[in-house]
Design a protein that fits this description.
By secondary structure, the protein is mostly helical. The chain has one helix and no strands. The termini are far apart. The mean pLDDT is about 90.
Length: about 110
C-alpha cells in the first residue's frame, strides 16, 4: 500500500512537473517571441530597403545601358561625319583643280 501511495505521489509529481515544464515553455516561448518581434520587424524593414535599392540599381543599370548605346551611336555619327568631311575636302580639291584646268584651257 505504501508503494502504491508512493507511486501515486510520483505520478502526481510527474504530472505537476510536466505541467510546470509546459507552463515554462509557454512563458519562454512568449518571452522569446516578444524579444524576436523587434528583430523580425527590423529585418523586414531592412529587406524592404534592400528591395528598393535593388530596384534603383536596376533602373540605374538600364540608364547606363541606354547611355552606352547612345554613346556608340554618337561615335558612329562622328565617324560618318569625319568621313563625309574628308570626301567633301577631296571634292573641293577636285573642283578647284578642274576650275584651274578650265582657266588654263581658256588661256591657251
Amino acid at each position: 500500500a505504501e508503494l502504491r501511495a508512493t507511486s501515486a505521489l510520483s505520478a502526481m509529481e510527474v504530472e505537476a512537473a510536466e505541467a510546470r515544464v509546459a507552463q515554462l515553455e509557454d512563458q519562454f516561448s512568449g518571452a522569446l517571441a516578444s524579444q524576436l518581434n523587434p528583430v523580425r520587424q527590423t529585418l523586414e524593414r531592412a529587406q524592404a530597403v534592400i528591395r528598393e535599392q535593388e530596384a534603383e540599381i536596376e533602373t540605374l543599370l538600364e540608364h547606363a545601358r541606354a547611355l552606352e548605346a547612345e554613346r556608340r551611336r554618337s561615335r558612329a555619327v562622328t565617324a560618318q561625319k569625319a568621313k563625309l568631311m574628308e570626301e567633301l575636302r577631296l571634292v573641293q580639291i577636285a573642283q578647284f583643280e578642274a576650275m584651274r584646268e578650265v582657266k588654263v584651257a581658256r588661256g591657251l
